[in-house]
Amino acid sequence: MKTIGLIGGMSWESSAVYYELINKHVKKRLGGFHSAQCILNSVDFSKIEKLQRDNNWDELNGLMVKSAKQLENAGADLIILCTNTMHLCSTEIINNTSIPFLHIAEATGAKIKSQGASKVALLGTKFTMEKDFFKNILNDLGIKTIIPNKKDREITHNIIYKELVLGDINEHSKQELKRIITDLKQQGTEGVILGCTELPLLIKPEDVDIPVFDTTKIHAESAVDLALNKENIKL
């Protein structure tokens, strides 16, 4: 079993879910008393959130590279970044480390392709919905992505940053997200990507009537599958 390096803390609530999902998938794959070999490097999200608001991606790149290098030096065999938005820093991480990096959009795209969907909705922070780092990877896989209108993007972003990252699970916000997903379904989407690692804390597959692609679950389980690969990891 390879050692999974996790860059977490963004938020710690979703990082805790990653840890649980990774260990459950190891248990499912190997049985017995098996658990994951992993190293968690958890950052202070307060600093990250401020830099995001200030649009200071140079410093954010530096912080993510530093975290990745620490994991590599600690003995990790592969790295996952336990957040969608901060994958804006993925190129710098890849360029400054020598171990494989599993991109959340690539893992999600592979899952969507396996289910035969070609047009999906993307929910997440405004960074994830409005920038191209996630959508471009899906487009390269032949998957068309649509996002909510400007007002609903703002609603979704605020639910994430003003509630979910603080551990606040609000029933009214859940109904708002369900409405947004219904509106996107009416535009012909064949599924919805929960493109923020906090969104699965609020929306479950049974809450909507189209397939849900939970990036947290997909990413965590894909990391385990890589870690258990008997051959060398290649990404």
From TrEMBL:
Entry keyword annotation includes DNA-binding: no
Full protein name: Aspartate/glutamate racemase family protein
Cited Pfam families: Asp_Glu_race
A Gene Ontology molecular function term of the record: amino-acid racemase activity
Gene3D superfamilies, sorted: 3.40.50.1860
Keyword Cell cycle listed: no
Keywords: Isomerase
Family the UniProt entry places it in: Belongs to the aspartate/glutamate racemases family.
